[in-house]
Amino acid sequence: MNISHARFLFATVAFFTLLVIEARASVGLTEIPGKDADGPVTIFYPSRSESQPVTRGPFTLHVAWQGEPVRGNGRLVVLSHGSGGSPWVYADLATTLVEAGFVVAMPEHHGDNYKDLSTPGPESWKRRPVEVSHAIDMVAQDQRFGSLLTLDRVGMYGMSAGGHTGLSLAGGRWSPAQLKQHCDAHLAEDFHGCVGPVTRLTGGVLDGVKKTIATWVNDWKLADATWYTYQDQRIAAVVVGVPFAADFDPVSLASPRIPLAIIGARQDRWLRPQFHSDAILQACRTCDRLADLATGGHGALLSPLPPDLSGLVADLLNDPPGFDRAEVPPVYEKITEFFHRHLLP
Asked: Is the pLDDT of residue 305 over 50?
């Protein structure tokens, strides 16, 4: 047997061995401490341990809690949750990524998560990219995962406020004063983007008062004209879903430093596409419109959806009439393929 034939045989055996390992792998789940004062980092990963039902809040996940990790494709994807979010509403996307061989890490963003909503908005947006970097650091330092991963090319996915994080990591610059300028011009059209889910315009006599108060609050909270930017050279590809983007300088994202894909939802009433996802796509010459859900709302990419929403938040996150949740898994496959294409050799 000559050397070239031996190498071919070895590569073939190694390939099929990896296929067998992956076929037997389940989805592992663990939580590790955050860095310094950061919140914990939830990790989904390929595991050789058996899956069992695990309850987290109102959700039941079929995972191997603290299961033994196995090597997948050697790449990490960091997920940045939306405002007030938890890891569990991204479990189906994380599972899709893990089944393709990725390890998935989700930092809990300080002051803007399901346990603590004390500082959403610009204060959180300044911290979030740093928290993504810290999550990569902590995964690298964990003896279970450090040897299984190559962290020179990390993927990042973010939805809503997490999409804001992704746009920052893709090279965008944003400013609170830019958001104030946007809201001064488009308060009624993008009311929930400017005010959040605290109240709504009804067409009644109190709408004028609501808009006046919103303008006063924004004048106070959004006076900072500083342009904020952040880079982590390990981040090599970004996907953002229904991102908060009205405070970005579109020119800064005309040619992102790394591959950037955007997912929109036409019936999003929280972050109107024309002011957020569409605005970035119009400016960006190289961005990939990965999917555009014609009947999807702001919560279309969440899976499983929270079952206990009520009031205005429920109206903004729950599916609009006519949306078919069968459209969501193919979008997850597109996200996975995008990371496979840009992170793997």
From this structure: yes
